[in-house]
Amino acid sequence: MLSNYLPILIFLIVAAGLALVLLGLGTGIGRYFSRFHDDRAKLSPYECGFEPFEDTRSRFDVRYYLVAILFIVFDLEIAFLFPWAVALGRIGLFGLLAMGIFLAILVVGFIYEWKKGALEWD
Q1: Considering only CA atoms, which of 80, 73, 108, 105 is closest in space to residue 95?
Q2: What's the sign of the alpha-carbon dihedral 41, 46, 50, 56?
Q3: How many CA atoms within 13 Å lie on the side-chain side of 106?
Q4: pLDDT, position 72
Q5: For 80-93, what is each residue's pLDDT tens digit?
Q6: Phi and psi at residue 98, in whole multiples of 5°?
Q7: In terms of pTM, does the model score above 0.70?
Q8: Residues 6+ apart with CB under 8 A from 118
């Protein structure tokens, strides 16, 4: 029974060894053979070609996160339409009614978010 797992163990050892060798070559020895060496200009922080205006650890407005969450929620709900459309022939009228209820709830949620002003940038 244990001999069945021997090829897997050999594969894992070879993969780990190869990964360590490649990491060593890329970070240690590769630094000496590269044509371009790091200088002050390459290591300086940049933002579109110039120094940043403020600290990069500044706080973001919560509206960015709200819009991102809303996008993810509505995008995932819309993703449920694709398998439904493929299986519509097999699920029949019951599937059509279930998806109608699902889309109605989705539209109610969208209207609620719109009325609450979650999509406004003012």
Answers
A1: 80
A2: negative
A3: 17
A4: 87
A5: 888 888 888 898 99
A6: -65, -40
A7: no
A8: 63, 66, 67, 70
